[in-house]
């Protein structure tokens, strides 16, 4: 995550400069998996480990879409 953004411990929210994003469903798990070292496929693998009954293609597509929206908002950046 970029500087100034942090995951709230008490609630399912992501605190970003001048805003708050409510995290629903697996969004918190996705954000927690973004440690700055994992690739997209590694993040998906972490999620599939946490949610073993989930459809891998759906998890991959939804993770990419969610991270894309976070990147558009300036919360994360891909290197």
Account of the 3D structure:
The protein has a three-stranded antiparallel sheet with strand order 1-2-3, covered by helices on one side. The chain has a domain at 25-72. The mean pLDDT is 87. The chain contains three helices and three strands, in the order βββααα. The chain has 79 residues and is an alpha+beta fold. A hairpin with a 2-residue loop joins strand 2 (13-16) and strand 3.
In a nutshell, what does this entry contain?
With 79 residues, the chain is of the alpha+beta class. The protein contains three helices and three strands. The protein has helices spanning 27-33, 40-50, 56-72; strands spanning 6-7, 13-16, 19-22.
Beta-strand residue percentage: 5-15%
> Number of helical runs?
3
Order of strands across the widest beta sheet? Answer: 1-2-3
Indicate the multimeric state. single chain
Largest sheet: 3 strands, antiparallel
The rounded distance between the terminal residues' Cα atoms is 12 Å
Rg calculated over all Cα atoms: 12 Å
Give the H and E element order.
Answer: EEEHHH
| Alpha-beta classification | alpha+beta
Q: Report the helical percentage.
A: 40-55%
Name the average pLDDT.
87
Unreliable stretches, pLDDT < 50, 5 or more residues? none
């Amino acid at each position: 995550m970029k500087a100034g953004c942090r995951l709230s411990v008490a609630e399912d929210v992501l605190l970003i400069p001048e805003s708050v994003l409510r995290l629903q469903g697996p969004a918190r798990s996705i954000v927690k998996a973004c440690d700055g070292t994992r690739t997209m496929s590694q993040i998906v693998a972490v999620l599939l480990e946490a949610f073993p009954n989930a459809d891998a293609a759906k998890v991959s597509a939804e993770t990419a879409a969610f991270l894309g929206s976070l990147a558009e908002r300036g919360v994360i950046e891909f290197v």
